[in-house]
Design brief:
seven-stranded mixed β-sheet, Aminopeptidase, 2 domains, 14 strands, 292 residues, globular, single chain
């Protein structure tokens, strides 16, 4: 019989090994090394002051039995600084599922924070909506950028992880591109014939066990989807040299100006809080820190 000795507290750096073991049991197909890499990245990254570094855990007599990872980051929304939190990797051992609401309630207590759920299983959609979340992205658009026309004079540059300055970009954008290159993303800068610099971050689609590497990338960041449409032809030709032919992007329908297919069967993303997230910005989320 389980006694009432369940506690919920912040995850600390000393809990990382135990949390990785718990998540490995809870998510089939994800190795312990996968979780340890992501947790180490969480340990090293900058986060807004006053917020949890890793998230929260349930423990029973000192043993972790539940976990919810939280990835906090700062954003500029409507010209104002805001706090965003990606709710990620929620798991509670079957014998303690009755305590799961305690974990989610504590994790979502800050009214000033915009909370995101960007990888919900389809069967959880009604549950998430009952918790007060609203969809901001209804599906995915699989684009074939090489079929787009290349704008005359446009070039594509690859950003290296140790770059400190890029002509035409702010220090903040340079640091974002370099940081994501260090996480294993492909950071690019498209230059127009007039000298404009447009930043992009893409992430290889996950390679599942027994599969050949998928010929696709996921769009993690651009300033606006219209800029991706503008640069799609040049980006597509750069990706072909890397063996990639498709770019998947969050969308609420077909994207004018792009060749490809839209589907609402997967890719729905939710938010709860004061600010609606924009499409084409998945920076510093679980997709990046933990991998696709």
């Amino acid at each position: 019989m389980i006694t009432q000795t369940i506690r919920c507290r912040e995850i600390s750096a000393t809990d990382i090994d135990a949390v990785a073991e718990l998540l490995t049991r809870g998510f089939a197909g994800r190795s312990r090394d996968y979780w340890m890499q992501g947790l180490r990245r969480q340990a090293a990254r900058e986060i807004p002051n006053g917020y949890p570094r890793f998230g929260f855990m349930l423990h029973h007599d000192g043993v972790p039995v539940g976990v919810l990872l939280l990835l906090y980051s700062s954003r500029i929304t409507a010209a104002e600084p805001t706090i965003q939190c990606n709710l990620s990797s929620w798991y509670v051992e079957p014998a303690f599922r009755n305590y799961a609401p305690l974990l989610t309630r504590i994790a979502q207590k800050n009214k000033e924070v915009t909370y995101l759920n960007i990888s919900p299983a389809t069967w959880t959609w009604p549950i998430i909506e009952a918790q007060g979340f609203t969809p901001y992205c209804s599906g995915l658009f699989v684009s074939l950028p090489a079929l787009s026309r290349v704008t005359s004079g446009m070039t594509v540059e690859t950003v290296v992880p140790d770059v400190t300055a890029i002509e035409g970009l702010s220090d903040t954008e340079v640091e974002l591109l370099a940081r994501h290159a260090r996480y294993g993303c492909l950071s690019l800068v498209c230059r127009t014939a007039t000298g404009g610099a447009l930043p992009f971050v893409l992430l290889p689609v996950r390679i599942r066990r027994g599969w050949i590497a998928p010929p696709a990338m996921q769009l993690i960041y651009c300033r606006d989807v219209a800029e991706y449409v503008q640069c799609a032809g040049a980006i597509g030709r750069a990706l072909i040299r890397r063996g990639k032919i498709a770019v998947i992007l969050d969308s609420n329908g077909p994207v004018p100006g792009l060749a490809g297919v839209y589907s609402s069967a997967r890719g729905r993303k939710y938010f709860k809080g004061p600010y609606r997230p924009r499409l084409a910005d998945l920076t510093d989320t679980e997709f990046v820190l933990y991998g696709p």
